[in-house]
Design a protein that fits this description.
Length: 315
C-alpha cells in the first residue's frame, strides 16, 4: 500500500470511529442519543470547541502547544459584554476578536523573541489572565443582553459562522504559504529555516489566529450559558485539545493536521460524553473514559505516523 493510500485511510479512521460510536450509543440508549433535543445539545456543545480548534490547529501543526484557549474565551467574552453595553449590539465580535488577537500576538512574540517554550508561556497566561478576569469581574456575573443571546443561539447564525470559518481555514491551511509553512515547521523546523522562510513570523501569525478563533468561540460560549463568570472557559482548552488528538491529529504536528480530523474529533468527544450521561454513567467514570480514549487515540496516531514514515524511508 502506497504512502498516499495509507494516509488517506488514516484520514477516514476518525470518521469511521464517529460512525461506530453513534451506532453503539444509539443502540445502548435505545435511540435516545438521536432524539432531536439530544442532537441539538450535541451540536450546541460541539460548535465552540470546533471554532477554537480551527485556530489551535495552526499552533499544533507546528508541534507547539496552546493551552490558553479557555482563558481567552473568558477574557474575550468579558470585553464583548462590556462593548455591547457601551457601544451597542454589533460591537460584540470586534471587541472579542481584538482581545483574542492581542493575546495571541503577545504569546507569539514572547515565544519567538525570548525563546520561551509555548507550553510555559500559555500556562502562565492561564494563571495570569484568569486572575485578571477575576479582578475585572469581582463577585459579579455579566449577563448578555437577551437579543444578543437569542441571535447567537440561533441556528442560522451559528451554522453560518461555523461554515464560513471552516471554509476560510481550509483554504488558508491548505492553499496559502502560511498554512503550508506551519505544517512544514512541524515536520522539520530547521529545514524550513534553511530555505529562508521567516519562522518567527509564521509562529506569531499562528498564535494570533488561535487567539482570534478562541475569542469567537468565547462569544458563542457566553451566549449559550447566558453571561460571563470567573469560571467561564475553565477546562475548555482540554476539550479542544481532546477533539484535535482524538480526531487523529499528531501531537508533533506536521502534514497529518487536517480540519476534517478536528471536526470528527470534537463531535466524537461530545457524543461520547452525551452517550455516557444518557446511560447514567457517573462523572468520575466519564472522566476516566475520556482519558483512556485520549491516550488510545494519541498512541494510535503515533503508530500510524511511524508506520508511514518507516515505509517511506524503506522505499
Amino acid at each position: 500500500m502506497t504512502r498516499g493510500v495509507k494516509a488517506y485511510m488514516g484520514d477516514l479512521v476518525p470518521l469511521f470511529t464517529l460512525l461506530a460510536l453513534t451506532l453503539f450509543f444509539s443502540a445502548a440508549t435505545k435511540g435516545a442519543l438521536l432524539s432531536a433535543m439530544n442532537l441539538n445539545n450535541i451540536l450546541n456543545q460541539s460548535i465552540p470547541p470546533i471554532i477554537a480548534g480551527l485556530g489551535m490547529m495552526f499552533v499544533v501543526a507546528m508541534g507547539a502547544t496552546d493551552i490558553s484557549t479557555g482563558v481567552v474565551v473568558a477574557l474575550a467574552s468579558y470585553f464583548a459584554c462590556m462593548a455591547v453595553t457601551a457601544a451597542g449590539f454589533w460591537a460584540a465580535f470586534p471587541a472579542a476578536i481584538l482581545a483574542g488577537l492581542c493575546t495571541g500576538l503577545l504569546i507569539g512574540v514572547i515565544n519567538t523573541r525570548f525563546k520561551v517554550p509555548s507550553f510555559m508561556i500559555t500556562l502562565s497566561f492561564v494563571i495570569s489572565v484568569r486572575a485578571l478576569v477575576t479582578l475585572m469581574l469581582g463577585i459579579q456575573t455579566l449577563q448578555i443582553a437577551k437579543p444578543l443571546r437569542d441571535l447567537f443561539n440561533g441556528w442560522a447564525v451559528r451554522l453560518s459562522v461555523l461554515a464560513g470559518l471552516v471554509l476560510i481555514v481550509v483554504y488558508v491551511f491548505n492553499y496559502t504559504p502560511l498554512g503550508m509553512y506551519a505544517k512544514a515547521i512541524g515536520e522539520n523546523e530547521n529545514a524550513v529555516k534553511y530555505t529562508g522562510i521567516n519562522v518567527s513570523k509564521v509562529k506569531i501569525a499562528a498564535f494570533a489566529i488561535s487567539g482570534v478563533m478562541a475569542a469567537i468561540a468565547g462569544v458563542f460560549t457566553a451566549a449559550r450559558v447566558g453571561g460571563v463568570s470567573t469560571t467561564l472557559g475553565t477546562s475548555f482548552e482540554m476539550k479542544v485539545m481532546m477533539g484535535l488528538f482524538i480526531g487523529g491529529i499528531p501531537v508533533s504536528g506536521g502534514m497529518g493536521t487536517k480540519v476534517s480530523k478536528l471536526i470528527a474529533g470534537c463531535l466524537m468527544i461530545t457524543l461520547l460524553e452525551s452517550g455516557l450521561v444518557l446511560l447514567n454513567v457517573s462523572g468520575a467514570i466519564t472522566q476516566g473514559v475520556r482519558g483512556l480514549v485520549l491516550l488510545a487515540a494519541v498512541y494510535f496516531a503515533r503508530v500510524v505516523s511511524l508506520s508511514i514514515h518507516n515505509r517511506a524511508e524503506a522505499r
